């Protein structure tokens, strides 16, 4: 099956999980809240990036930053609680996704950086973003800054700082996704809906893992985001780590206790990946990235380059998002094709 057909099938499955929770019937009130959660009591408290955050009521005007974060809200059916989203227009086709109606109905506030002014103009009561996913101390846009303005924050768990020189990540990537779904389910009184999503995603990942290789048969895999002098890649706390390992691959940068970070080309060469996954986004196309990798002399002896074994995934597949489980299934199929 061609790759784009595989992507369509994966997204169709994701849509089914989002809409039905693996076949469970969803009983909802007219405003979209789950009947089972209608008796939820406030205030509620969740732990987010090591801090306890208390909500006196469900936020009503949320601004999200970036595509994965926005789609977490959409997967939970919370577009009616959103004032809008901020996202560049280099994050792929939004017309063929399970949440296309939510994208159509939710204001696209900006294709540039999120800012205090934008948040205040939107009359936001909560910003859902993350460190390097919108929050940036250098830009003066932080949860502390927003708090002074009377605006709450929720941090993407993939972006949590872990205390090592600005490194990010405090738990396995899929657990970060499940944690955010459960926390947001509690904050917005849709815990049953969040639980069905998590259960459905766990089942989807388990199905994808069935029959994947183990031990020495696992292909060594490197994630290439971008970068010429030094490659930007994924450590053990960014989405690609779980995508690669649960799809049957051996993530060659699994010892990096960080999420998204830079390494040296000499490290890539020494670990000799057999497959390279390319992150497709930004001004540099996936094909341009592949051409660079195949023409860069220091990589000439790397197995993935010699055997032309490249896989292209979209940005939203690789950052924390509800598309992660479908991406695992796709990677598992691609790894199996290479093994034949």
TrEMBL record:
Keyword hit for Signal: yes
Keyword terms, alphabetized: Signal
CDD domains in alphabetical order: TroA_a (cd01148)
Xref: Gene3D superfamilies: Nitrogenase molybdenum iron protein domain
Superkingdom of source: Bacteria
Domain Fe/B12 periplasmic-binding positions: 61-340
Entries under SUPFAM superfamilies matching the protein: Helical backbone' metal receptor (SSF53807)
Record InterPro entries: ABC_Transporter_SBP (IPR050902), ABC_transptr_periplasmic_BD (IPR002491)
Signal peptide coordinates: 1-24
Protein family per UniProt: Belongs to the bacterial solute-binding protein 8 family.
Full protein name: ABC transporter substrate-binding protein
Species of the source: Streptomyces jumonjinensis
